[in-house]
C-alpha cells in the first residue's frame, strides 16, 4: 500500500481520488493540501483522509507520505515538484508538466538529480480503447504509421485560473494540445523525433488573451505527421477523437460522444451526464464508466505497479517535457506563420532517421502502385517500371 498526499482538491484531484480509492484500491490518500481550509476539510471528509492542510510543504513532508500527486493549477506544478525533490518523495503530476519546455526541463532535471520516482499523468494514453489500438499498431496491423490525428474540443474549462494566461501558461493549445500531442506521438512512436510544427491559432469567441481554438501539424523525423485539433469554443460536450492512418490499416476512435450509448430524457430526474456535457435533456451521450473510459484506472495501475517494481511508468516527466517542447514550437509557429523547429535540448530517442521508403515491389521489374477488383469482375494492377518509370495497367482475369 502506498500512502498518497494529494495536492489540490479541485476537478482533477477529485477524479483522481475517485479512481484511486473508488475500486477498493490498496493505495490511500492520507493527506490533502488545498488552498482554502473549507475545501481541504471537505475533501478530507469525502475521502477519509487523516490529514488536511493549507500548507503545501506540510503535506509533502508528512512522514507517512510515500508519493505526492500534483493536481494543482499549471503555474504551481514546478514549485510542488521542487518540494518533492527537497523531501525525496515520489511524484506524479497532472498535465501539462510545465507551462513551457523551460519549466518542464527544470522539473525533469530536478527529479532525476533527486533520484525520485516521477510519473506524468497523461490519462488519455491509458484509455481502454487507446490501449487496444496501440496493441494493434505495435503488432503491425496498421503497417507504417503515416498520420495520427487527435482532437479534444469542449466549451471551455471550469475554473477561473485556466482563463488567465499567466497562471495557465496558454490557452487550449497547452490545456488540450498536450493530450493530443502525446496520443499522436505514441501512435507514431515515442522514440521518433518530432522535428517541426506548423500551427494556426486564434481567439475566436472568448474575451481572453490566450487562444481558444487551434489546429497544428507536427512533423516527425521518419516522415510521419501528427495533427492536433483543439478548442475551448466547441458546443455539444466533450469531443475526444483519434484517427490513425497506416500503410496497412486505419483506426478511428470516438472516446466520449457517440460511443454507442445514446439516451433520451425529457429531463425528469436528470442531473450529471458526463464531463462537460452541455445539456441534461433530449438526446444525450452518457459515458459508461467515466473513470475507466478516461484512462484514470489503467494510468494509476501503471504508476503504482512501476513504483513498486522500481521501474519507470509508461509516462514520465521526460514525456511531459517532450510534449511541452512540441507545444512551444506550436505557439511560435502560430505567431510566425512558419514551420518552427522543435527545440529539444534533451532527446533520448532515435536520431538521424530519414523518411522511410514507400516503394513496394510487385516483381523484379515493377513497383506496385495499386491493386483493385472492379465492379465488372476483373482485377486490375497499376504498376510502375523500375527502370523507365513508365506507369502501366495490367488486367488479371
Ligand atoms: N484529464 C486531465 O488530465 C486533467 C483534467 C483537468 C485538469 N487537469 C489538470 O489538473 C490541474 C488542476 O486543474 P483542475 O481542473 O483540477 O483545477 P481546479 O481549479 O478545479 O482545482 C485546482 C485546485 O488547486 C488548489 N489550489 C491551490 N492553490 C491554488 C491557486 N493559487 N489557485 C487555484 N487553485 C489552487 C485548490 O485546491 C483547487 O481546488 C491543472 O494542471 C490541469 O491542467 C488535468
TrEMBL record:
<dbReference type="Pfam" id="PF22725">
    <property type="entry name" value="GFO_IDH_MocA_C3"/>
</dbReference>
<dbReference type="InterPro" id="IPR055170">
    <property type="entry name" value="GFO_IDH_MocA-like_dom"/>
</dbReference>
<dbReference type="GO" id="GO:0005737">
    <property type="term" value="C:cytoplasm"/>
</dbReference>
<feature type="domain" description="GFO/IDH/MocA-like oxidoreductase">
    <location>
        <begin position="131"/>
        <end position="251"/>
    </location>
</feature>
<feature type="domain" description="Gfo/Idh/MocA-like oxidoreductase N-terminal">
    <location>
        <begin position="3"/>
        <end position="115"/>
    </location>
</feature>
<protein>
    <submittedName>
        <fullName>Putative dehydrogenase</fullName>
    </submittedName>
</protein>
<dbReference type="Pfam" id="PF01408">
    <property type="entry name" value="GFO_IDH_MocA"/>
</dbReference>
<dbReference type="InterPro" id="IPR000683">
    <property type="entry name" value="Gfo/Idh/MocA-like_OxRdtase_N"/>
</dbReference>
<dbReference type="GO" id="GO:0000166">
    <property type="term" value="F:nucleotide binding"/>
</dbReference>
<dbReference type="InterPro" id="IPR036291">
    <property type="entry name" value="NAD(P)-bd_dom_sf"/>
</dbReference>
<dbReference type="GO" id="GO:0006740">
    <property type="term" value="P:NADPH regeneration"/>
</dbReference>
<dbReference type="GO" id="GO:0016491">
    <property type="term" value="F:oxidoreductase activity"/>
</dbReference>
<keyword id="KW-0560">Oxidoreductase</keyword>
<comment type="similarity">
    <text>Belongs to the Gfo/Idh/MocA family.</text>
</comment>
Amino acid at each position: 500500500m502506498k500512502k498518497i498526499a494529494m495536492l489540490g482538491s479541485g476537478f482533477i484531484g477529485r477524479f483522481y481520488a475517485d479512481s484511486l480509492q473508488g475500486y477498493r484500491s490498496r493505495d490511500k490518500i492520507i493527506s490533502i493540501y488545498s488552498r482554502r481550509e473549507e475545501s481541504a476539510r471537505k475533501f478530507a471528509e469525502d475521502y477519509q483522509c487523516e490529514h488536511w492542510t493549507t500548507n503545501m510543504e506540510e503535506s509533502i513532508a508528512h512522514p507517512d507520505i510515500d508519493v505526492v500527486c500534483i493536481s494543482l493549477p499549471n503555474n504551481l506544478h514546478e514549485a510542488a515538484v521542487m518540494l518533492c525533490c527537497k523531501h525525496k518523495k515520489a511524484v506524479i503530476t497532472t498535465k501539462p508538466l510545465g507551462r513551457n519546455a523551460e519549466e518542464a526541463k527544470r522539473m525533469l532535471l530536478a527529479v532525476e538529480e533527486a533520484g525520485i520516482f516521477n510519473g506524468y499523468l497523461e490519462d488519455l494514453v491509458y484509455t481502454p480503447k487507446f490501449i487496444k489500438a496501440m496493441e494493434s499498431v505495435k503488432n503491425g496491423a496498421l503497417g507504417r504509421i503515416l498520420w495520427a490525428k487527435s482532437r479534444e474540443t469542449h466549451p471551455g474549462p471550469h475554473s477561473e485560473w485556466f482563463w488567465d494566461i499567466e497562471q495557465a501558461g496558454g490557452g487550449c493549445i497547452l490545456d488540450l494540445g498536450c493530450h493530443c500531442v502525446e496520443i499522436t506521438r505514441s501512435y507514431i512512436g515515442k522514440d521518433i523525433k518530432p522535428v517541426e510544427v506548423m500551427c494556426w491559432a486564434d481567439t475566436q469567441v472568448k474575451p481572453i488573451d490566450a487562444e481558444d481554438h487551434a489546429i497544428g501539424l507536427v512533423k516527425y523525423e521518419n516522415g510521419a505527421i501528427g495533427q492536433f485539433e483543439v478548442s475551448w469554443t466547441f458546443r455539444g460536450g466533450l469531443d475526444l477523437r483519434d484517427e490513425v492512418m497506416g500503410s496497412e490499416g486505419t483506426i478511428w476512435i470516438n472516446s466520449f460522444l457517440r460511443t454507442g450509448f445514446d439516451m433520451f430524457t425529457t429531463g425528469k430526474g436528470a442531473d450529471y451526464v458526463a464531463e462537460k456535457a452541455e445539456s441534461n435533456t433530449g438526446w444525450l451521450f452518457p459515458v459508461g464508466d467515466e473513470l475507466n473510459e478516461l484512462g484514470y484506472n489503467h494510468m494509476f495501475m501503471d504508476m503504482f505497479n512501476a513504483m513498486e517494481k522500481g521501474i519507470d511508468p509508461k509516462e514520465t516527466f521526460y514525456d511531459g517535457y517532450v510534449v511541452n517542447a512540441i507545444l512551444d514550437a506550436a505557439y511560435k509557429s502560430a505567431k510566425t506563420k512558419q514551420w518552427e523547429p522543435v527545440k529539444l535540448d534533451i532527446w533520448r530517442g532515435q536520431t538521424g532517421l530519414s523518411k522511410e521508403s514507400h516503394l513496394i515491389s510487385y516483381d523484379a521489374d515493377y513497383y506496385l502502385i495499386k491493386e483493385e477488383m472492379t465492379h465488372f469482375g476483373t482485377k486490375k494492377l497499376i504498376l510502375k517500371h523500375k527502370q523507365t518509370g513508365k506507369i502501366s495497367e495490367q488486367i488479371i482475369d
